[in-house]
Amino acid sequence: MLICSxxxxxxxxxxxxxxxxPKKESLKRxxxxxxxxxxxxxxLPQLSDSTKVDIYLRLKMKSQTVTSTLYERxxxxxxxxxxxxDNSGKTQLGDVCCYVHCQDKFVAIINQFRTVPGxxxxxxxxxxxxxxxxxxxxxxxxxxQLEQLKQICLKVEMCGRNDVYVSRFPxxxxxx
Length: 176
Prior knowledge:
Blueprint: E1 9-13, E2 16-19, E3 23-26, H1 29-41, E4 52-56, E5 58-61, E6 64-67, H2 74-77, E7 81-85, E8 91-102, E9 105-115, E10 121-123, E11 126-128, E12 132-145, E13 149-152, E14 154-157, E15 164-167, E16 174-175
Antiparallel strand pairs: 1-2, 2-5, 3-4, 4-8, 5-6, 7-8, 7-13, 8-9, 9-12, 10-11, 11-16, 12-15, 14-15
């Protein structure tokens, strides 16, 4: 494992650095169930309720730092919404809850979003194109390997409504 420029970091695989000192903790039930499903699909032993794992809160992925929802300053940076490939290769969106090192695996636990199909978004005189998706929180957790993470996304929650939008390329907005 290589050291990055951050005082405490490890290169868990080429181009991916876990930042900060890990916390040795038992996972919340939802996170543990998602991790156990991930392990079961790979023929690895399941975690018990009391099993402690190394939990990281930040990841340096290429030139992006992807925080997690457990990171204390995450609400200020809002850099935990991510585009990723699920295990079938399909592109998905979600919030990174935390990063885990367990059984020689480095993974991200993600709270998945459900994309609203066929949603066309218009706001005032802006035509928000295909890189914007309307999503719904699903409270469903999944585990992916770090190389399945693609990029940070911009998440926008509309005040007074329950609408949530995620932009894969925040700089691409077309005017009518």
